Amino acid sequence: MDIVALTACVSSASCLLTQGFNAFVIGMLLFLVASGLTLIFGVLKVVNFTHGSLYMLGAYFAFYVYGLTNSYLLAILAGMVGVALFGVLLERIFFRRLYQSNFLMQLLMCYGWILVLDDVVQIVFGAEFQSMDMPPIFARAPIMVAGAPIPIFYIFLISISFIVALAVWLLIVKTAFGSKVRAVAANPSMTAALGINTSLLYAGVFALGAGLAGLAGALAAPVRSLVPGMGFSILIESFIVTVIGGMGSIGGALVAAILIGLCRSFGSVGFPMFTDILVFALMAVVLVLRPDGLFGKAAQT
């Protein structure tokens, strides 16, 4: 532990800004993955353990398309749209059969797909670590703010993530599609009785959740090492985000992801050997004080 270093960092504008931006980069990537995870659970009532693998696919899709086209915009679109389309196939062919199944069946199906996707990526791209070049538009000198070097790509990543967060909120709260999604999440049988195609809604929600994971992978590709199985660690933290924020709450996922980002970023300064413990301790405290999460609602019986 180094309380002195943490105190000095918090007292220094440059260190505070640097670690703050790092926290938001960690947090916003986590939010994109966790928001899709909590959206799928909130509507489909399926705990999608393959979500980390969808993040991995998004990163590799972006890596491959960027290598072909040298266009990061196309790489991002490939990661997001490609994974969303794959998510539709996954939901239509496999996951739709699990909606009435028990948790064990869901877990086994997801675990099987984790193994399949990890092996496919290893066969296609190899088992070694890969890295994606930073796009030239972002490979410039960082912007200096109060003596803190802020990489341009970090600003881009955080901005895009906040825009996506706002877009998802508007989609769920302000559109007809969102109204139907909220209705089917609350009472699927009544929604179906009203003539709404719940099967199509399920596919749309799964595609949206998968696309968010793919987008996170595409955004992370220039600043993260790519390797088969890379989705496991972010999957664990995404579950922690959904637990802290409240299962099914997009706003809760955003707040929880930023809190975890702050724990990891500033914890690495003062408690570098205990950052994982800090994250789990945060989850434990929240569960003691609010068992349904910060923004979760108690189940109605």
TrEMBL record:
Record CDD domains: TM_PBP1_LivH_like
InterPro entries: ABC_transp_permease (IPR001851), BCAA_transport_permease (IPR052157)
Bilayer topology annotation: Multi-pass membrane protein
One BP term from GO: amino acid transport
Major site of localization recorded for this protein: membrane
Chain segments annotated as transmembrane: 25-44, 72-91, 103-125, 152-173, 194-219, 239-262, 269-289
One Pfam family, short name: BPD_transp_2
Any Gene Ontology CC annotation: plasma membrane
The keyword Transmembrane appears for this protein: yes
Nucleotide-binding in keyword set: no
Gene Ontology molecular function terms on file: transmembrane transporter activity
Subcellular localization(s) per the UniProt record: Cell membrane
Keyword line: Amino-acid transport, Cell membrane, Membrane, Transmembrane, Transmembrane helix, Transport
UniProt family annotation: Belongs to the binding-protein-dependent transport system permease family. LivHM subfamily.
Name this protein carries in UniProt: Branched-chain amino acid transport system permease protein
Annotated source species: Glaciimonas immobilis
